[in-house]
């Protein structure tokens, strides 16, 4: 298996044009982005086929892939052993747990160590049913993300992800430059860190969004 795979040589099980995957067109643009950024240390929230493809396309990059589901974690590990046995990928199982960031509570991956210096972050998890779980990922990794580093948020076509970006803007005012990659549909939103701050702001707009979701969820459970 060569380091860089051509489209016509990709095994079907490594195709990204599957349900819950990034998509080949999105991945192609993402790879060009990461190459232009000269990424050395990459963090991926949500493991899977994309982890294997990243290892194949960017063999020099150290990748930390974080997963909450034991089945997906094992599947990713097995795919890496099969297709990229000498990869520089670490797949960590971090269960979902409740955590506080600012004035909000988030159900997201358990907090753990990252690279001391992170060049780029891909956020494609946790699942949508955690509501703002993906929002919590940036709060975890922010201090490690270098100035000039980028965050790639998948599924930006969804209102929930668009709200997450608005919440990040409120929590880190003036910290990130934001753009949407020129892909149809526009699934990837890019945030580029322009300066450092000690921590996120205590934003009441973020807290309102966070607690409104929590109350709706509680009401739904009580009526079930």
Give a nutshell description of this structure.
The protein is of the alpha/beta class and 224 residues long.
Write up this protein.
By secondary structure, this protein is of the alpha/beta class. The chain has one domain (20-223): 3-Layer(aba) Sandwich (Rossmann fold), CATH 3.40.50.150. 35% of the residues lie in helices and 24% in strands. It has six helices and nine strands, in the order αβαβαββββαβαββα. It has helices at 24-36, 49-57, 70-83, 133-141, 159-171, 204-223; strands at 41-45, 62-67, 89-93, 96-101, 104-109, 118-123, 145-153, 176-180, 189-193. The strands form two sheets. Strands 3-2-1-6-7-9-8 form a seven-stranded mixed sheet, with helices on both faces. A two-stranded antiparallel sheet has the order 4-5. Strand 8 and strand 9 form a beta hairpin. It is globular, with a radius of gyration of 17 Å. The mean pLDDT is 92.
């Amino acid at each position: 298996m060569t380091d860089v795979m051509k489209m016509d040589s990709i095994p079907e099980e490594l195709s990204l044009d599957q349900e819950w995957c990034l998509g080949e067109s999105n991945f192609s643009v993402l790879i060009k982005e990461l190459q232009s950024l000269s990424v050395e240390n990459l963090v991926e929230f949500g493991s899977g086929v994309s982890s294997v493809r990243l290892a194949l396309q960017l063999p020099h990059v150290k990748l930390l892939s974080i997963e909450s589901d034991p089945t997906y974690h094992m599947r990713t590990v097995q795919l890496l052993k099969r297709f990229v046995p000498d990869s520089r990928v670490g797949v960590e199982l971090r269960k979902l747990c409740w955590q506080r960031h600012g004035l909000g509570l988030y159900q997201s991956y358990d907090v753990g160590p990252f690279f001391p210096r992170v060049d780029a972050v891909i956020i494609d998890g946790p699942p949508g049913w955690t509501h703002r779980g993906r929002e919590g990922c940036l709060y975890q990794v922010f201090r490690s993300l270098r100035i000039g580093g980028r965050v790639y948020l998948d599924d930006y076509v969804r209102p929930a992800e668009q709200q997450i970006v608005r919440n990040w803007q409120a929590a880190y005012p003036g910290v990130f430059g934001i753009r949407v990659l020129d892909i149809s549909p526009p699934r990837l939103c890019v945030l580029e860190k322009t300066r450092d701050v000690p921590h996120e702001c205590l934003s009441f707009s973020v807290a309102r969004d966070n607690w409104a979701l929590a109350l709706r969820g509680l009401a739904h459970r009580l009526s079930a």
